Amino acid sequence: MFTKYILPLLALAGIAVATVEVIRSQRTDPPVPPATERPESPYREFVAGAGLVEASTENISVGSEVAGIVSRVFVQVGDTVKKGDSLFETDGRAARAELASRQAALRVADVQAANARYDLGIAEGLTAKGVNAIDDLEEKRFAAKKAEAQLSQAEANVKSAETNLGLLTVSAPVNGQILQLKVHPGEFAPDAASYSGRPAILLGNVTPLNVRVEVNEDDAWRVRAGASATGFLRGNPKIQVSLGFVRFEPYVVPKASLTGASTERVDTRVLQVIFSFDRGNLPIFVGQQMDVFIEVPTDSAAPKNGGP
Description:
CATH class of the largest domain: Mainly Beta
Number of strands: 14
Distance between the termini: 91 Å
CATH topology of the largest domain: Elongation Factor Tu (Ef-tu), domain 3
Shape: elongated
Structural class: alpha+beta
Largest sheet: 6 strands, antiparallel, barrel
Mean pLDDT: 85
Order of helices and strands: HEEEEEHHEEEEEEEEE
Low-confidence stretches: none
CATH architecture of the largest domain: Beta Barrel
Strand content: 25-35%
Radius of gyration: 37 Å
Strand order of the largest sheet: 1-10-13-12-11-14
Number of domains: 3
Oligomer: single chain
Number of helices: 3
CATH superfamily of the largest domain: Efflux pump adaptor protein, beta barrel domain
């Protein structure tokens, strides 16, 4: 008798579950607040752009002129260096041996040149006394010239070997800070001409810092040289800095920093505008992104002669 109620009970249970699910699906969840507040422009009329913090010298990728095994590294990440300071060097045993060999050849050439000059002096004295023939004098003279040429060649070979040895030590091209260090003793450092991967060392001058702002080509004409701008650090818009205009990059390039917004056009071209600021004690680092607002004149009509 109990079995005849099983199917109706199961049907009622299914209806109840379906009703609950329908009610739950129609319920609207409260909107999730954003992880961070969106910055607001301090200007009445403005152009917004995404900015990337970089060194004021731009980020310089330092490589080695000569490929080889790294023997010593003289710096660490975060070190401040001056132009000409040694950064790292590759194994120089072969180059030092070559230099020693050419220095020895120079000493031999020097002795040979001195001996040729001595022989020439004797020949000139004997010829003046009529003891020696003119042909012998000319032969000594040509021998002396040859010895002098060989001496000059030996000196040039020594300088070439010294240059090759000097190329094994990579020096800082500018004053700046070591931003990245991707080379260590025992690693192979390829020469810069044949290597397109990560740089051995990335450095740049961080006092002041620059911000490379990408302005949509549709708004590029509105930006003026010398315009004021304010940057807000991504992730914490409470950290903001006043930016000073530096220059335009006059070549409009394809947009590289994509935000991922559904309305974003990946084929957009942008004008890059460079601003600078003093970091001070703010936790702003090279490579971070900023939301930048650039002030534009209230009367933003296009100038008759075009261009920013």
